[in-house]
Amino acid sequence: MAPSAPENASHNAALLSSSGVGGDVSSAAQKSRVTIIGSGNWGSVASKLIASNTIKLASFHDEVRMWVFEEKLPSGEKLTEVINRTNENVKYLPGIKLGKNVVADPDLENAVRDANMLVFVTPHQFMEGICKRLVGKVKEGSQAISLIKGMEVKMEGPCMISSLISEQLGVNCCVLMGANIANEIAVEKFSEATVGYRENREIAEKWVQLFNTPYFMVTAVQDVEGVELCGTLKNVVALAAGFVDGLEMGNNTKAAIMRIGLREMRAFSKILFPTVKDNTFFESCGVADLITTCLGGRNRRVAEAFAKSGGKRSFDELEAEMLQGQKLQGVSTAREVYEVLSNRGWLELFPLFAAVHEISSGRLPPSAIVEYGEHKPNFSAVEGAAQYFSS
Ligand SMILES: NC(=O)c1ccc[n+]([C@@H]2O[C@H](COP(=O)([O-])OP(=O)(O)OC[C@H]3O[C@@H](n4cnc5c(N)ncnc54)[C@H](O)[C@@H]3O)[C@@H](O)[C@H]2O)c1
Ligand SMILES: O=P(O)(O)OC[C@H](O)CO
């Protein structure tokens, strides 16, 4: 059964009151109510950030509902029950209190029923199924934001996750991306993030207000696709950085990979969406996320292990062994990007992106990321492509 706030016994029931704290009935009715769809590593940190703000800001209900993909823990208990008892996501963010106003809910429909601000933060591969389940279940006039770094490729071409959400659920959808390794933000180390919005600056400001804290500085830019593609494509470059780390090629090579990767990110984004702005690549979602992910992200780490094994161990096997249930986005994104490139005859223009997929799918050895000879990617081609598409 879906938990209602008062069942959350160890928490302060008053804080979880559905009518909000300290307001009369009419002001309570105008307050925004937030639900987070997703509860992995970043989803849990997002809950903590948001819960610390809803409790302070009069325009939001205190309670933050978090939809949890239910699972049984080794102890035999359900994850939602443990989160609601301990106020910690013991599997995906152990040791961090989420905020007593966070309520874990295993029932997706129940979790979104009363909300008018929806925060989507699951691995991207689950979003199509989640959206299907939510069709007709979301409150009219709701606003959404996606923290998901990834995309879908359909017959018609690539579909960003924010578009999937907008189209399937009939809601406006902003995005939030940035240099955001979740475990660092969980312990309140300073970082920045970028909200991308389409037209409505006021809505973007409301999202900024919901996420911003003294240690998490959020800026809004009018470029949904640019922000979202930065967050999505950097995961492909992170795999390349992991390969060169696994091959112990050193800092210069890794810096070259990051530079070439950034050029391909920009060219790919602009060729698909000519409205994408160059300045977006200088925001947290752009160059800063690329740097942090190539230094300390999960995609980099697993790609390093893959290269160290000489490509003999699969990404699936390494992900299961190294991440304990957390999911990589880079391998499927590299495949999706490759599909777009190959469908449109652009493979030669994006040699780094193409090489990453060919390596992660086992068609080329990890050393092909920079190897001279027949496998050497023609990195100079991308300079031409990037310049062409950005002019
Ligand atoms: N972790 C980070 O540091 C970080 C930072 C910024 C952005 N992101 C992005 O946020 C998104 C979510 O990542 P995360 O780190 O919160 O997740 P995660 O990789 O930590 O966790 C995996 C999540 O998927 C859920 N899950 C497993 N099977 C499922 C299914 N069949 N249906 C639905 N859910 C299922 C699990 O319950 C768990 O909550 C990703 O797009 C990621 O790129 C992550
Ligand atoms: O750990 P990764 O590789 O999924 O990257 C995490 C974040 O996206 C970094 O901003």
From TrEMBL:
GO terms for MF: glycerol-3-phosphate dehydrogenase (NAD+) activity; NAD binding; protein homodimerization activity
Organism: Linum trigynum
Keyword Oxidoreductase: yes
The protein's Enzyme Commission number: 1.1.1.8
Active site as annotated: 234 (proton acceptor)
Protein name as catalogued: Glycerol-3-phosphate dehydrogenase [NAD(+)]
The keyword DNA-binding belongs to this UniProt entry's keyword annotation: no
Gene Ontology cellular-component annotations: cytosol
Domain Glycerol-3-phosphate dehydrogenase NAD-dependent N-terminal: 34-200
Reactions catalysed, as given in the entry: sn-glycerol 3-phosphate + NAD(+) = dihydroxyacetone phosphate + NADH + H(+)
Residues given in the record as NAD(+) binding sites: 38-43, 69, 126, 182, 298, 327, 329
GO biological process, one term: glycerol-3-phosphate catabolic process
Keywords tagged on the record: NAD, Oxidoreductase
PANTHER family linked: GLYCEROL-3-PHOSPHATE DEHYDROGENASE (PTHR11728), GLYCEROL-3-PHOSPHATE DEHYDROGENASE [NAD(+)]-RELATED (PTHR11728:SF8)
Domain Glycerol-3-phosphate dehydrogenase NAD-dependent C-terminal: 223-371
